[in-house]
Amino acid sequence: MNDDRFEVIGRVTRRQDGHAMVTGRQLYSSDISLPNMLQARVLRSPYPHARIAAIDTSEAERLGAVCITPEDVPRVKYNERQVSVPAKTYRDRTVLPDKVRHVGQGVVAVAARTEALADRALDALDVEFESLPAVFDPHEAMRDGAPQLHDAVLLGETVLPIERNIACYREAVEGDVARGLEEADLVVENEFTTGRAYHGQLESKAVVCRPEADGGITVWATAQSIHNTRQLLGSLFDIPLSKINVQRVPIGGSFGSSIQMNSSVAVCVALALKAQKSVKLVLTREEDMYDHCKYPSNIHLTYGVKRDGTLTAGYLKTVVDIGGHNIQAYPLLGCMAGWFVSLYRLPHLKFEGTAVYTNKAPACAMQGYGNPQVTFAVESMMDTIAEELDIDPIDVRLKNYVGLGETFWGQGPTVRSVIRSCGVEEMLLKGKAMVGWEGRGSSTSKTGRFRRGIGVGRGFHTSGTGAPTPGEVIDYSTAMVKINEDGSVDCLTALMCHGGGTLDAGAKMVAEELGVPLDRVGISPSNTRSTGYDVCTHATRGVYCGGASLLRAAQDVKKILFDFASRIIDVNPDALKVRPDTNRGQGVVCLPGAPAKRITVAEVAKTAQIKGWGSIIAVVSHRQVNCPPCFVVNFVEVEVDTATGQIRPMRAVAAVDAGTVINPDLAAGQLEGGLCRGIGLALLEDTTYKPDTGELTCGGYLTDYKVYTAQDMPSLEDLSTFFADTYEPSGPFGAKGVGEAANNATAGAVANAIYNAVGIRLTEAPITPERVLSALTRDAEQLQQGR
Amino acid sequence: MMTKRRVTLTVNGEHVEPLVEANALLVNVLREELQLTGTKYCCGTGQCGGCTVLVNGEPILSCLTLAVAVDGADILTIEGVAKPDGSLDPIQEAFLDHGAVQCGFCTPGMILMAKDLLAHDPSPSEERIREHLRGNLCRCTGYHRIVKAIGSCGQ
């Protein structure tokens, strides 16, 4: 796909960091090694809920290890995630706890010359736990007399007592839902669940900390926000921010797992400060799996609908099991409300969300932040409505979807914007034709052991969290762009790339704006000392918000470039243009139609340097005042083995409305990867716990947790992707996000495909073979009784 | 204290004789002793394929292999896949051309598996490629472009 409007935007180009990745030169946090560095290990709780009665580190210290216990670390209560404004941030954890609230929680940490010695020191620690009753089910946790995880937490600076383990509650109401349901010809309701999927990023979390001579620290961490990491470390350890340098390090997959400053970062810093030596802490896969997971959901959903398929009301009630700590449940519930409300028009609506503590690993954002969970329920219900009213499922969607000119709740009730670009109809209709929708047949026509079905799911994600007014969530990015004396360009930003090509997109935008060949635009290594604030690369904001900040800086730089060029070639700067000259491998400033009035970008920059006019450089902090939805549509074909309950994804069409697509290959790659993880959420992935011990059933092993392999995905021929032809007026070069959207619609599409295959509505994800078989058996029994 | 032992290896064509402990894993010797960090440590228990290297031409999981067990072996890691002049192997070129790289963490293992496959089967079918990669996990790509890239290298 080449877009004639642009030189490099929309063209397939090799990613700039790709060469380092295919040759093994890319350095991730776990690859950082410093002279005289100690290796750290953490003693973790074997109990799901226990008070720490006594700790004896003397034997470990005798072996030469540096040890930290809860006594050695700051007592400050904090929240790992620093994206919300302080007044809306719930704080319930310390660097090391007095009381553990889930198996695998760190209690004591050691650092020693080698990993083997650190392991021996770990074995030599003596920790006495006083086991407490634990609770693993959120509904049980809310009952009177249930074990209480937290007595009180801090909300901002206010002490907030916790009752019945309810971490927070959120409600959104518009109109009168009871009236809306009364006005309906049909009321449908059902209950849906999704699992506590594990991020499964290939790089387990790692951190290296070097104490500096000036009392400061330098940190290399698996992190999605270097600035939030720095600010949190500064407040925890009382170090001026000017003495904390957090380096941006490539991340080996993320999916939300490091939006927060992971608990291991503070532990590593505490060890390094005590040892006054560099310390490295790399989590094992098992530790990583006990660190975080996706927010699970339990959703009760009711819709009222007219005979013609028009929705009259919607009511979604959810209970979210957040585990032992509240990382971001309050904004999560707000977002879940927003996703629900923004999928389909609801004249009357109600949302109620309750987040509940349990003695499990803390849940955090994972691709979609409540969106795949809500969309699974909503998209399943759209098909139920279609079935009940005998309308084509696509028509029900077309009739009710929230689209152009309507209000989008980008990040919940407080962040609203008007939709200005929308490719929903285009994607539904094109996808329908591509997948052969009309030939899918109804479940009643399907017989035999192996039955195939096709399902549709649609959805969206927000592109960032920007809004015209300050909200609960901070959102802006800072970028610096500089034209060098040879005409090449440096871009400096704290923005991250998690693999999707965010920084490549930024480089393309700068190249496009400055008319400089793409291979002469470089993304500089960055750290917190050299960059202005960037909130975090999360919420599918990289291209739309972070890219926009780079574009703004490039626009400012262009003004300076034209100003300097006008002095040299004597042309009014407003009349100048800049274009790449491939023969010279240079950008050329020119007056169109006047061949004599040309000068290369390099000549301008060099002349400005020699004459002392200054560097061609600009720094911009930019907040997007919008957060447009990037819409997605998935069509999935599955094959159900009615004898074993096994479901295989056979074919899929995935589409996104990302506005102008900056990197077509990488954007399609996002769709393919999102589809794979979405099918995983639908059919495979969950972290379950042993009720007697509170341990993960899979033990923290990937082979027992299970993720899809290359053998499980549809073949090359059977998986297609495409982009809607839209332009987002508020986006840089018309772009919106892709990231999280890529997996939001998938689970619903899969459940709908299963229904189309076997005529059974499965509402508990992952839809495992056991669940399929038991539903098939129940269905067969009901049929028999019916006879 | 454990006794250290000298092992003789040819790594990416270079003769090395690291001094290793009897229980040292190959992944750690490569990454820490030889500073070849392109070989990734992902799960440490042979579940994901991220630490794959070629030993005497065969893929092995370096996180499950003792360094002493491969004494005398010829080892290829991702750092040795490109030609000595720095030009890329066709598989590396294909990964870049097909957008098969996202976060890049599984990439070294995938490329070495692809090298192994193509050495035995110069034009593998898609099914064969998928079967060959079944032990190598990728969380970013859904495997689509990795399979495509390897397929494009077939003769």
Give your account of this protein's structure.
The complex is a heterodimer of chains A (787) and B (155). Chain A is of the alpha+beta class. Chain A has three domains: 32-132 and 202-253 and 258-289, Alpha-Beta Complex (Aldehyde Oxidoreductase, domain 3); 293-468 and 626-786, Aldehyde Oxidoreductase, domain 4 (2-Layer Sandwich); 476-622, Aldehyde Oxidoreductase, domain 4, CATH 3.30.365.10. Helix content of chain A is 28%, strand content 26%. A seven-stranded mixed β-sheet of chain A has the order 3-6-1-15-12-13-14. Chain A has a five-stranded mixed β-sheet with strand order 10-19-18-17-11. In chain A, strands 23-31-32-33 form a four-stranded mixed β-sheet, with helices on both faces. In chain A, helix 10 (371-389) crosses helix 11, helix 10 packs parallel to helix 19 (746-758) and helix 16 (664-683) packs across helix 19 (746-758). Chain A is globular, with a radius of gyration of 27 Å. Chain A starts with 17 loop residues before the first helix and ends with a helix. The model of chain A has no long low-confidence stretch (mean pLDDT 97). Chain B has 155 residues and is of the alpha+beta class. Chain B has five helices and seven strands. Chain B has helices spanning 26-33, 90-97, 107-120, 126-132, 144-152, and strands at residues 4-6, 9-11, 14-16, 19-21, 52-55, 58-61, 74-76. In chain B, the strands form two sheets. A five-stranded mixed β-sheet of chain B has the order 3-2-7-5-6, with helices on one face. The longest helix of chain B has 14 residues, at 107-120. The mean pLDDT of chain B is 96. Chains A and B meet through helix 1 and helix 16 of A and helix 1, helix 2, helix 3, helix 4 and helix 5 of B.
Tell me briefly what this model is.
The complex is a heterodimer of chains A (about 775) and B (about 160). Chain A is an alpha+beta fold and about 775 residues long.
